[in-house]
Amino acid sequence: MTGNARRVRVAEAMPTADGRLADVMAADEAARARIVAEIHDDTIQTLGAVALSLQNTCDDLTDPAARTALQDGVRYVRDAAERLRRSMFDLMPPLPAADLCEAVEIYASVLFADSGLVHELVGGAPELTAETRVMAYRLIQEALRNARRHSSARQIQTELTRTGGELRITVSDDGVGLRQENAQAPTHAGLRIIRQRVESLGGTVSFDVGLNGRGTAVRLRLPLGAAAA
Description:
alpha+beta, 16% strand, disordered N terminus, five-stranded mixed beta sheet
């Protein structure tokens, strides 16, 4: 076998950039699925049993003060279980049959259901690969979740555009805004996660503060195709 033939066979065996991206995304989603299963089958079931036991004990008490204290404990346990269920929803993959816009709208409707926040989706991102759709969905998830936790906003907008070989995502709100130093070097864990993920994919991210320090816009630019891997 000649040296050229050996090089050709090695090249044929090497995974493509798109293949590497698919492998990374598949491993990430599999890890999320395992965490969801463990939370559901173990932790949430245990919390449910604890809440039931406390409630049964509470029903047998005659001391009003003790009943009140134990009832508070029941409420705390059930609240913890509910927070874990919301975390499970965050970790679960977008609907397999849904496009990116549909997946984002479903997620936002659940995330902001009891918050009074109004979310608007503008634009679209057709013809994305499954890996790119999941990757973009996870980034938007993090941006929306961060806005809900920290912005004190009333309105949040997600804008999606595809220009040539680039997907552009902007998540903006009318909330309290970032301090300028945080816009340049974010200290919030959620914003740091977004920056690390985008830069690892060869993209760029900026955190812009609105007029008079009000509102924040998270702007992502992701190369599509082989460059994204």
